[in-house]
Amino acid sequence: MNKKMIVKCLWLPLLALSMTACWDPSDYKNIYIEPVHQSWVFPVVNSSITFKEIVERSGTNTTVETDPATGVFIIVSTDTLHIGEASDQFQLTGSSFNYNLAAPGGLIPGFGTFQASESINRDYEISAGQEIKTIYCESGEMVLDIVNNYYHPVTGMITVKSLKNNANQAYSRNFYLGGMGSNSTDNRPLNGYTIDLYNPSDQTYNIFMIQVDFTITENTSAPTYGGSLNININFNNPGYELMTGKFNKSFSIADQFFFFSVFNSTIMAEQYFANPSLGLDFDNSYGAPLTLGFHKFEVTNNQNEVIPLYNIGTLGPNDLNLSGTNIIPHMNNPNDSPAKTSFILNASNSNIDQVFKKAPNKFIFGPDFTIGDQTNNHNYFIKRNSDISFISNFNIPLNGWATTHLLGDTLMDVQWPKLSENAWLTEDFRVTIQFRITNSLPLNIRFKAVCLNENNGVFEEGYNLVFNEEVDPIDGTVPFVYSANVNSDGIAVDPQTSSLSINLTKDEYDQIVSSPHLLFFYRLTTGGELEQSIKVLSTNAMNVQMILHFSGTINPNDFIK
Predict the structure, then answer these.
(1) For residues 198 and 207, is the Cβ–Cβ distance under 8 A?
(2) 306: part of which helix (H) or strand (E)?
């Protein structure tokens, strides 16, 4: 109610009085009106909220789904990672091949012509331990330079047997070099070419092959008959679309993270979920056998506790092995979709149910991969964009118990009505915050708000609002909102209504107004018996009604002075 409305309400009875009585207008300035005690009630909140809405506000990767068979809520949190990119693990580097060809025993005057044909093989190792058969290039350049170091003309043809076009024809080039220092050069983009490193004559791999046929014609006026034919082949910045061969490479990936945002605000927890699980869905776009292991798999929480994950019991074929090897299927054809497989961690094969007692917010793991096997298969392949991607799926049925789950949340830059600016309010002004909550969730809720003052960047506690009236012998609180009654199956069957009023004096209210920030603490515990497993259903919700009741004495004379 604003000042004009208050004045209007006060002057209505005065208007009625003026119509039934007479006084001297000169006495108007001497009128005195007794202070009036007034009350105002403002409804602020009347809404329902489900556990689904509370959880899904915690992060964009978190949703709540319903088990169609039981109606129990399931927290689902997903994250996607791409690791082990082939462009990082299998890189082509620039390579150079240098050849010096000369007549055996040298040239002697009167030789007339000399003809030769030479096939030359050189090792071309892309990566240690790999036996490469074919490289399908998508970028880069081959630079060929042939230099005549004879004083005699040289003609011929070079065939790079390891470089083939789309028609599977080997690159060849004719050359004529008239004398000392003359040269022939070709710059050839590699896009659309393949580099064939398989030597069928002896069935070997990583072999770069050329053939040179040349003829030297005598120059009788040459000052010397010594010399050579120099050939340089450089591959600059080659890039591949596909490589085939036999691969055998192991590599470790830096620590990776899955973030579990449900517990982002948790300060402390002692809880238990009956059957949480972590599913890993792999997409493998490598065309070679792949195995996965881990040198680290652990979780942390907001208290920086580190809790290791480990297996228990006998593992099945789809159980994630944290200390051994997991076999991941591979693609059989470059045009296929990535090969898929799934593994799972649950309470039957690991300690994940114990890990969730500590409200983890980050899963940390260090993967180790091996690509290839011990067979003699040289038809495996790796694409330029091959990688291992996987989706983590956390599934937490809301079936369990909590003896402590303390959350903290800070609301910054709170704007409060500043009642102290209204001089017409006397010091007996009071504010009452009244709540009426109907709770069908099987959760007790305790609540505390701390007003924070900022002093040179340091937050200091000011006035505290403890929304509980009784005292708990353990932590000094009782529920602000009581859990619904819980039956023997852990299901809430009878909603409970809680009412609470918080009274503040004007001075107390002014203390709150002076604090621009609020720190909220929530403590959740499950209803029913101690450590009884409860189930949060899709039908469970909480209805909240809140009103603000302002009361105080108004001195109307402040308006007519």
Answers:
(1) yes
(2) strand 306-308
**Helix ranges, 166-251 (H):** none
Q: Which domains does the chain have, with CATH numbers?
A: 40-60+402-555 (no CATH), 73-88+248-397 (no CATH), 93-246 (2.60.120)
pLDDT tops 80 at residue 383: yes
Q: Can you read off the two tokens belonging to residue 308?
A: 């290791």
The phi and psi torsions of 6 (rounded to 5 degrees) equal -65, -45
Determine the length of the chain.
Answer: 561
Q: Residue written as tokens 């017409």? A: 424
List helix spans (H) across 21-104.
51-56, 86-89
Three-state DSSP at 510 gives helix
Residue 178: pLDDT above 90? yes
Only one residue has tokens 């189930």, namely: 535
Residue with the two structure tokens 């517990």: 263
Sequence-distant (6+) residues with CB within 8 A of 473 are: none
Which pLDDT tens digit goes with each residue over 214-262?
999 999 999 999 999 999 999 999 999 999 999 999 999 899 887 766 6
Question: Which residues, 6+ apart, have CB-to-CB distance to 493 below 8 Å?
Answer: 484, 485, 486, 487
Neighbouring CB atoms inside 10 A of 247's CB total 27
Q: What is the DSSP letter of 482?
A: P
From the list 287, 392, 396, 291, the residue with the least C-alpha distance to 342 is: 392
User: What number is the average pLDDT over the span 261-278?
Assistant: 61
pLDDT above 90 as % of the chain: 42
Going by the DSSP 8-state scheme, the letter that residue 358 receives in this structure is G
Instruction: Copy the structure tokens of residue 334.
Output: 């470059």
How far, CA to CA in Å, does 125 sit from each of 184, 201, 248, 365, 466?
28, 19, 13, 32, 72
Give the separation between CA 476 and CA 478, rounded to whole angstroms: 7
**Distance from the Cα of residue 199 to its chain's centroid:** 46
Beta strands in 24-109 (DSSP E): 36-50, 62-66, 73-83, 95-101
Q: Rounded to whole angstroms, how far apart are CA atoms 166 and 164?
A: 7
Integer Cα distance of 279 and 318 in angstroms:
10
Residues facing 40 on adjacent strands: 550
Name the β-bridge partners of 390.
81, 282
pLDDT band of 102, cuts 50, 70, 90: very high
Q: What is the pLDDT of residues 457-489, one digit of tens each?
A: 444 555 555 554 444 444 445 556 778 888 888
Q: Report the alpha-carbon distance of residue 307 to residue 178 in Å, rounded.
A: 77
Backbone angles phi, psi at 11, to 5 degrees: -85, -15
Question: How is residue 317 written in tokens?
Answer: 């074929």
Q: What beta strand segments (E) does 319-442 contain?
A: 326-328, 339-345, 362-372, 380-383, 388-397, 399-411, 430-439
Single-letter amino acid, residue 450? V
Whole-structure pTM value: 0.67
Residue 306: C-alpha distances to residues 74, 298, 299, 385, 396 (Å):
25, 7, 6, 35, 20
Token pair for residue 397?
């049925």
Distance CA 358, CA 379 (A): 48
Q: Write phi, then psi, for 440 (nearest 5 degrees).
A: -105, 10
HSE-up (13 A, CA, CB side) for residue 557: 9
